[in-house]
Amino acid sequence: MAAAFGCCHDVERHGPRAGPVMISSADPTIDILSAGAVKTLLAGLADAFQSRGGGRSQLTFDTAPAIARRIEGGERHDVLAAPAAVLSGLSRSGCFAVSRRIALARVGVGMVGREGQDSADISTQAALVTALLEAEAIVINRASTGLYMEKLLGRLGILERVAEKLIRLPTGRAVMLRMADAPPDCIGFAATTEIEVHEALGVHVAAVLPEALQNYTHYEAASCAAQPALAAADRFIAFIASPDSAACYAASGLEPRSIAIER
After folding, report:
1. Which of 72, 163, 205, 229 could in theory staple to 28 by disulfide, Cβ–Cβ 3.0 to 4.6 A?
2. What are the strands, taking DSSP E only, across the chain?
């Protein structure tokens, strides 16, 4: 289920630094729809944009496939933050008219660890295959990470052997909730950022996939040219590209992929 967060913001003028500029309640709220894997980063960016007088925002989080379906189904948002492939597809199909677009970050795949339990060794391809074959259940989501893991199982030649013990859940949070109480012989995978967001549940990143098998999902953010809050949305994209966003990246544990803005 999608999660929504609202916050009220002031506005900042970009360019030479000036003092915050107060805006009236009539100024448009920036409606942001984001993939859950970059939730911490986007929430931090919105808060920082607010504190610097950047404009009001409303954040909603969902899986990448669900974001595509929502936009294709007619939903309209001022800003999308999603895998690059999703944004490109929506732009090509005419469902989302891009005004400005920027690379956000890349997120890899990690194995979910639990407090007080030993984690399987997945440091090499052979070790990963052994861990997957010996697991009683393999928990993944139906978003970008889970789709990749299914492809990887095929590449490793074990998809048919483990198909009956695959547990596919709708979201990364659902994976965390299942893994928090799972027995030791249950193994789960998710975006590293998704695991970190849910550490309060007693989960942590136990390991990441071996580099040769790792999959980095590249996330981007774009403002929509057809929305009434375009000016504010463009300023938000510009803020992400500015040095002022550095603290948000540091807090999220992610690195900015680019500072260039596409128009």
Report:
1. 229
2. 3-7, 30-35, 57-62, 79-83, 98-107, 109-114, 137-141, 166-169, 186-191, 203-208, 217-224
